[in-house]
Design a protein that fits this description.
Elements lengths: L7 E6 L19 E2 L2 E2 H11 L4 E6 L3 H7 L4 H9 L3 H12 L2 E6 L6 H6 L2 H4 L4 E4 L3 E4 L5 H12 L2 E7 L9 E7 L5 E8 L10 E9 L3 H6 L11 H10 L4 E5 L3 E4 L3 H13 L2 H17 L1
The chain binds uridine 5'-triphosphate.
Uridine 5'-triphosphate binds next to strand 1 and helix 5.
């Protein structure tokens, strides 16, 4: 059966970003740069490379900077071109044409599940992708969200990205349990949001990419506050896992960075800098120098 292609995505970016205060006092953490590109631009670039044309950004109290970033900046472009800085002007212009952005507001940070639900009116009755605005999956040739979209298109079931985490890290993630079926993917049986240390039933952790059918909307609407008093996406997904269509855990290929965490953010900056030919040797030399100094 051919199923509709995934062309719409929700990118939640309305969290408080408390781990990055005071940097996130006036700008969302999704706007913090990885080298010189805001995290959310890298996330949306992944979506665009997977064929997504419409992105619903869920904004919080600092919404202006994200909207402005993806908007035209005529004066800036004009000034740059008049100074002969055409490469910079092209880079600025390219951001404003990369995708259609629809901004919605999450008035209070009630949790990730609630943030996704804020995208309902803009997405409507079709399957869609969710990409967390502070989570990076680095894969230049096979975008992470595209890997999930393929599984949805083959099976008609929701698909969520999973990765095996190191022992002792399970309590920081949503953890899933299931069995591989004929598709080669994990048919999810059980989901636990941030299990207490030492109690996790597996090391398969949910990372910030999802392709979900519209059947998730009523499940989200019925979800009450769970772990941490927040409306959790994982709790709504449990309903999908229990439905006849089921829910697949897909081991995504790519290097994953949690850019919403200080160490993850620094690691992402180093990894992306090392990928840039003009920076690589200097960054390596810098790291060696600093390692000797301390
Ligand atoms: P996080 O839990 O990493 O975001 O949510 P946070 O709450 O901002 O983090 P800290 O702990 O305070 O530093 C994952 C993603 O979901 C979004 C965040 O912006 C992030 O992209 N989110 C979370 C929302 O949009 N709304 C919410 O209510 C919660």
């Amino acid at each position: 059966m051919t199923r509709s292609r995934i062309t719409k995505a929700v990118v939640p970016a309305a969290g408080l970003g408390t781990r990055f205060l005071p940097a996130t006092k006036a700008i969302p953490k999704e706007m913090l740069p990885i080298v010189d590109i805001p995290t959310i631009q890298l996330v949306i670039d992944e979506a665009v490379r997977a064929g997504i044309t419409d992105v619903v950004v869920v904004n919080g109290r600092n919404k202006v900077s994200i909207e402005d970033h993806f908007d035209h900046a005529y004066e800036l472009e004009h000034t740059l071109r008049s100074r002969g800085a055409n490469a910079a002007a092209d880079a600025v212009e390219a951001v404003s044409t990369m995708v259609r952005i629809i901004s919605v507001r999450q008035k209070r940070p009630l949790g990730l599940g609630h943030a996704v639900l804020c995208g309902k009116a803009a997405i409507g009755n079709e399957p869609f992708a969710v990409l967390l605005g502070d989570d990076l999956i680095d894969n230049d040739t096979n975008p992470g969200i595209g890997q999930l979209a393929k599984v949805y298109e083959q099976t008609g079931s929701g698909a969520i990205a999973i990765m095996e985490v190191a022992p002792g890290q399970e309590h920081m993630y949503g953890i899933v349990v299931g069995e591989k079926d004929a598709t080669g993917h994990l048919r999810i049986r059980q989901m636990i949001e941030k299990p207490k240390p030492g109690t996790a039933p597996s090391r398969w952790a949910i990372v910030g990419r999802y392709v979900l059918p519209p059947a998730v909307w009523p499940l989200l609407e019925a979800t009450t506050p769970g772990h941490g008093g927040e409306i959790q996406l994982t709790d709504a997904l449990r309903g999908l896992a229990e439905s006849p269509e089921g829910l697949y855990g897909v081991v995504v290929e790519g290097i994953r960075h949690d850019a919403g965490d200080k160490l993850g953010y620094l690691r992402a900056n180093l990894c992306y800098a090392l990928k840039r030919p003009e920076l690589r040797e200097q960054v390596l030399a810098l790291v060696r120098e600093l390692a000797q100094l301390t």
